[in-house]
Amino acid sequence: MKNYLKLVNFEVNRFIKVYLSLIGITVVLQLVGTFLKSKSYLKEANWMIYKEGVPVQEFLEMNGYMDLVRVLGSWWFIFPIIICIAVLLIYVFLIWYRDWFGKSTFIYRLLMLPTARINIYLAKATTIFLMVLGLVALQLVLLPIENKMIDVMIPDEFQMALTSKEAISSYHPLSVLFPNYFSDFLIYYGIGFMVVFLIFTAILFERSFQVKGIFYGIIYIAIMMGILVAPIFTVLFTGKSYLYPLELFYLEIILGILVMILSILISRYLLNKKITV
Amino acid sequence: MKKLRIMRGREKMIEVKNITKNYGRKKVLKGVSFTANKGEITCLIGINGVGKTTIMNAIMNLTPIKSGEILIDGKKVDKASYEKITFIPDEITMLQQMRIEEAMEFMKDFYTSWNQKRADEMLHFFRLEKTDRISELSKGNRAKANLLLGLALDVDYVLMDEPFSGIDIFSREQIAEVFTSHLIEERGVIITTHEIHDIEHLIDKAVLLDQGVILKEFDAEEVREKEGKSIVDVMREVYRA
Amino acid sequence: MKKYWKLISLTVLTIIIIGTFYIQSSPKASVFSDIYFKKQAGDVKEIQDVIIEGNLLSEHHSSYIAITNNESTSMNRLPSIYEQIKSDTTPEIERLRKEYGSFMRGKSNSGDFYENDDLLIYIDTIHSPNIINGNANIDIEASVLDKKKQEKRNLDIHFPNEEKYDYIAVNRVWFDGEKIKVVATIDKHPQGELHVYAIDWKTGEIVNDELAFQYAYESNNSNQYTDVHVVDSETTQTDPFFIFEKNTYEDIEAEPDMYESQVIEKELMKYDLQTDKIVKLKLPNELQNIDFPTQNGHLLMFTRQSEKEIEIINYDIQSENIASKRTFDIAGDNSEEAHIKIKNGKIYIVTPYKNMNAEAILFVGDSKTGDTLYRGTLEVDGMKESKNYEFYIEYLGIEDE
């Protein structure tokens, strides 16, 4: 346990610079974006109302109100999110391959640590999870700040008072990243983390059996996916379900957990018996 | 030296028993067996690509073997073994961006067998700067830092893969000096090399390898005393045959 | 410890922030929480089970809102996955599952049930596409549970000529003590048929196939077509009969190339499930043109809306008389059709439109006495731009207890 925590700390510190730049990019772009969007709305309003003499009511009917949703839909907001997702996705692979490739022989050191090797796997997985959730938390902090910026910059009569939560739920892509219910959050991110486990295990297959290992990894993922969707597909194809919907739901949760446990067990075996530097 | 070995009994040694390994269809190890005793320097000799590094990796459980068995003091390698045996590969096994002090911190963090006093001693002896980054070290200094990180562990066995390859003459001398010091004494050492000259006089036991098989395993001192041959003489006989 | 500050602060902050988000995040939407019904008369308890859904439009925003328990929820937020799965059933089926757990396994929500003290009967039709000829394969699944013996029996039922049918919809299942009667509408393009099958409950054998009515639902060249539908009943388990409505329409060219369908004939028929006799109901003239009544035992309930009021007419099919007539004043400026639901002797009415000037009214009345049980107006508060909103009510439902 202690060694596991040390390894997590080590892995987090290894990625911290890239991670802080991701945070930096997100904060800067989103805040600048909010500022510029508000500014351009104000400019438009000033021009229309004072120069063109359009009544306020008419302007609002034509242009609508200023609110957070306008910011959420802009590239200023979406671009950093896409970057963060992409970098973390790549890092799911890099977190392993960086120890083998290039000049690095660090995998020798990791495998020779006087600790159970599965701790390496778990520490890398934990690092990915922490990084993902950390960015989720960052966004949850940024949204109210951005909302406040709009509130300060735009006169009351021109703004729609949405809370950041309402803004999220009215902008669909975000409600996937930040589901409304904690149970949904657990399901979405649980699935995400299960996929990380699957990819990690597939990587270890590749690292253990090289080219053949790529096929093993793909087959492994396919079988696990098969196990997960089998109950649902049976219902879809036969049109009948022996299990009641809630039972099916719980079965899927159990299967998901089993898939994760199986991934960990197989990875432990590969790390102990099959891995090669 | 010999007396010492007998006194410690049979248990204190690395036993490699009939190990085989394939890379795909290619058989790289075809039944390799030898032992390396604690308190002795055993040298795996052979040209590049005969499987010396693979044997080292196999002893450390860094690569699977197809068959055979490897025992350290009569036990298979597990996580606890890494407090008893260490491996110094031909490249430094630390992150390139780390400073030497950070690398030592890392080792201290994970190994109970880490001996900071000895590390400091070696740092001084090798004239390395704590604050230097590994990526910025010269080739010779990297090899020294690598050696430092391995030898500062209070372990019974040390495996070294080609410690002298591609290193300038002064570094070589410095490293060779280590072999005669208390840093090595009492420990069991396995060293690989394709070039015997620098360390011929240090070696207790030689294992001659070719094409994944052991051609000859012999006690250097015995051969010297009884047959009046140097290791190089024996090598000539064996490899030319 | 000092070495771990980055890890610790990252973890702690993340947990606190995400935790706070979800602790605060109740699915009730704050902006819309000010949409509710303001009581004018009656008892608020009466609207506890009422569900109203509609679209709130304002400027560039629209929200689908549900009002339950007099509290509004933005439906832009779907219920959680767990809730969606959980609510994928009716209270009735939920009860059957609890009581007859093993019998109910593999029974779909779409099937029909009949239950008396001794038996629980289930029938469903399963249509699966036939890969070879593209037609539907129809399977009839039927099983009977003998409650006393706790015996389950699957019946292998084949309707005569079923291979020629495109679709079979079971409208009602009824049991006369010996035979299971299945009322089914059949689609045999372009014709429809209403069948009443009698099935031996022990063997699954079709004892009788009564063709109650046959009709063409697609006009070929005469521009005429007919449709038939079985009248909804709240008392299907006890009624030894069912009522069906058959309407004949004709397409009339109102303007060049603009066709309107017009009812040219309209009949209500009563089918006696015990004797297989069909009787045409003789409706008084004033009920002739009112569509879609609902049935409760011997009473047929018709509703008629005018601008200011909604009228409920109860027609007794036994005495062939209008049993009662009630008028509910809905007032307001409502030219659009109100949503009406009748349940357990109560009528629920909601007028469908609300903006700054137009009022939307929710009304609950006793359908027999005409007494007002509740009356309230929809209030939309708490929007900064309340001047420009429109609220379209699109659904009225009554939750089952």
UniProtKB/TrEMBL annotation, chain A:
Domain of life: Bacteria
Record key words, sorted: Membrane, Transmembrane, Transmembrane helix
Membrane spanning residue stretches: 16-36, 75-97, 118-143, 186-205, 217-237, 249-271
The protein's name: Uncharacterized protein
UniProtKB/TrEMBL annotation, chain C:
Source taxon at top rank: Bacteria
Protein's UniProt name: Uncharacterized protein
